[in-house]
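Journal club side-thread
Mid-discussion, someone asked how the predicted structure for our own chain would compare to the paper's figures. Pasting it here so we can look after the session.
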Amino acid sequence: MNLKVYSKEFGYNLKLAYPVILGMLGHTLTGIVDNIMVGRIGSTELAAVSLGNSMIFIAMSIGIGFSTSITPLVAEADAQGDTTRIRSIFQNGMFLCTVLGALLFLVIVAAKPLMIYLQQPEEVITLALPYLDYVAFSLIPLIMYQGYKQFADGLSLTKYAMWAIVMANVVNVALNYLLIHGIWIFPEMGMLGAGLGTVISRILMVVFMHLILFNNHKIRAFFQEFHLREIKKVMMVRIASLGFPSAMQMLFEMGLFTSAIWLSGNIGPESQAANQIALTLATVTFMFAMGLSVAATIRVGNQKGRGDFKQLLIVARSLFILVLLIEILFAFLFIALHQFLPQFFLNMENPEQILTNTEVIAIAAKLLIVAAIFQISDGIQVVVLGALRGLQDVKVPMYITFVAYWIIGFPISFVLGLYTDLKAVGVWIGLLAGLTAAGLFLYIRFEKLTRRLIVQKSQSEPYGTS
């Protein structure tokens, strides 16, 4: 294998991916900032925010997963220079994202009574219910923003979403400070101020993306004739046929990691705390893979539109190699610093908590060893999934991810975590097994599809051409 063929693609891959990576790290930072600022009010308020966000998490996964269907369709049409089709994808996609955001909001509101059955303290539920109203409503602008983002990504304009996230983070922090504590003319709303800050910052994200795209003279044409009569059943079905399986793929993976939180909580509070520490660190490194996954969707979608399947294979493999190298680097860092990193999350100067914190660090250190290995599998599977999305192949990957995560991964986590001495480490071994199975099967699927497309292309070409 000539690595130079693939390594020469690294520069453009990173150029596309780095704004996405920074944007996703910004999303992660928003959640961390909210937890820190609310946590200073009290532990009950922090628990209420965590409870409310846990219900939003699933809805958000569905909405974001669905919106990813826009990117490969736009990337393919962009490579073909089909501006009429791009406008149709954009307008129909935005309509569907808006409707889906509203539906998810209504579902969350209707599901609020289910909180009673989560066996949480009554005072936590009392605080969580009004907070949930705010963050549930914020799903509408969030999914609308995703529609704009995926459209811009499909046109290889990945920086716009990055700037939107930077703006939203600044606004969110400022509003949290003003509304939580009642500074200046603002009312003192406590934890509800964090919820309202989230709503306002997400609305501004939508406004920002609309204005910046509309003011780009090359893109403004796609906003023309933005009317309900332009909403076509055929295009909506096409977007939904890609969007639903993509939403399920994300839901299956997010659900597996959510189950790890639940299993760790059943083992004990120390295991749950250690799981949260290791998961937070792994999430940060995963954002790099997610950025490359978006780049894979864009570049593979472009090559599919051009019908150049040989170059498509080179581009995709360059992304697979790149994510492998990056995740291996992170793996070495996790192994080298596995005893040190967990200490950032705990107060080791408090003598009353020293024994508990020492146990949490010991467990988290072991989890980081497993995380060092599984993030390699996680990175590969998400980038291959992005490449398959670029090929608009989503149904078979949906089945693959379900089997990998819930037929292979979850049972291993359940048995090793709850019925062996491995405990939390056993839970994470299940995560490793599920992610590795997903990465392997998805890669086999991609190689099979691309080989078939290359053969079909060569057979359809006249003799004497290449």
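Post-session note: The chain has 15 helices and no strands.
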